Each structure stands twice: as C-alpha cells, then as structure tokens.
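Hi all, long-time lurker, first post. I run a small reading group and we've been trying to get comfortable going from sequence to structure in the token notation. Rather than ask abstract questions, I figured I'd post a concrete chain and ask someone more experienced to write out its structure so we can walk through it together at our next meeting. Sequence below, copied exactly:
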Amino acid sequence: MTLYAATEISEFDGDLIELYTFTIQGVDTFVTSADQTISFGGDSYVRTSIRRSTLTENSQLNPNGITLVVPRDNAIALRFLSFPPSFEFEITIQRKHRQDTDSLVVFVGIVKGVRWSGSEAFLECEPRIGKLGRLGLRYKLQTVCNHMLYDDRCGVLITDNEASSGQPLRDQNVNISDVSTDGKRLKANVFSFVNVDLQDLYSVGYCIRENTGEKRFITIHDGSIGSPNAFIDLSRPFNAFAGGGGDLVTVIAGCKKTATVCDFKFDVFDQFGGFPDLPLRNPVVQGVG
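-- Answer (accepted) --
Happy to help. Here is the structure in token form:
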C-alpha cells in the first residue's frame, strides 16, 4: 500500500482521467473529461464537458448500459437531432492516470439514442454484448413470406431481373433530377415505366446514396405518371442531399412478401416462405358461423 500511496491515496490524488473514442464509418472523434487536451496512443483527446453514469455489472446476458451527459450542442448529440445516423455510433471509454503509458478499457458499446433536457443532451449507450440479449427473427404462421428478400432462403439475387419484363432489380448510378423540400421525394426519368407491372417496382425496396453508403427505405414508387415526374418516396431524407452533380443513388426493388409478388415478380414461388392458404378467420376464437 505504501508503494502506491503517492498516486492511489484517493480518487482525486490518483489523478484519473477518461478518454472517449466515438467511431462512425471508420471516422474517429477523440474527447476527454480532463481539464486539458490529452495526447495518448498517437491521438489527441480534446477537452470537453462530459460526464457519465456509474458503470455496473450484473449476471444477466443483457448488461447495464451507461448514460453520457454533454452540452446540448455537442457534435455527437447533434448527429441524432433529426434522425439517427444510418450507421452505428461506436464508443470506447478508457481510464488512466495522467502519467501512465497504458490504459484500461472500461466500456465498449454503441450510442443507441439521444434525448435532450434543458441545456444538456443525454447519450444512451449500450454494451456490445447487449445485442445477444435481444430476440432474433423467428418464423411465424402467417400468409406473407418469412424470408428476407435477397437472402439465401429467398433465392432471389440482387443481380436478377424482374420476371415478367427483364428489368434489372437493381438500378445503379441514378441521377436524381428533383428533390422535394423535405428531401423525402426523389424524381428521376428512370423511375417511369410504361409496363404496369413495373410501376411500383421499387416500393418497399431501398435506396443507397453512392458516395456515402447511406441507406433509406423506399415507402412508395409511382412510375405511372411518366417522365420526368415519376418518383420514389423515402422513409427519411438523406443528409444535405440535393441530387445531380455526381451525387448519385442506387435503387433496389422491394418485395411485399405476398405469394402473388413472389410468383409473378420474382418467379421463385417454390421458395415462398409463407402460408398463403391460411384461413383468415380463426374458428377457435371467432366461432364457426
């Protein structure tokens, strides 16, 4: 005990600092709760106002998370202001004494969400192992297909063509001609189809912004109104997207998971993972008459 008394006599005399690394799409942001910028491991951790809840452990598969408290205009928090990021925000917390050459990793996880109250923002963080405690997808007795489109059990390849027309299910390098004020509606000539079977080809599909990799769910595709007004509607807008100028997208057909769509749109009815003839009326619950 005497050997370490100079640095370990108390929490404050021990001079502990914490280093926070936030990572999204391979880009790191380094901050520290110390009173000055800290250089460690070749990186500079910038001083910022940040505190956290207590780290706790339990015997459950889903361990406790932590809450970080930062100013409401914190750059990390603002990434969640309108919509959550398209990619996971990873966080690693290290503790060390100022003079130490190594550190102890005390938390590795992701930022699940952010809430604001007054002048502060609260970042709710979940440990990586917490994902193991979540319920996974399971098969259900239902009329619609249980498979995920383009997975091995579905049997459709993203490079395939639409069965009735030969139109590719994936259209790359699409130049958007017009973007609505709220950023959700995108117009392009290639969204227009004379063939009735293709006029909602991309509904419940997804759209990828090629220069960032951001993905958005397509809620509606209306290709019946002709060029240049045919459009797709996104579940939420891309960040700072105006279309054109080389900012291209890829659109990928979706599936409504019905037996009819599986048969006529994709021609893989043998792989259909639902029960199309399942009675809609349950005689046990609703009676026979």
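A couple of things your group might point at:
Residues 177 and 188 are 5 Å apart (CA to CA).
The mean pLDDT is 87.
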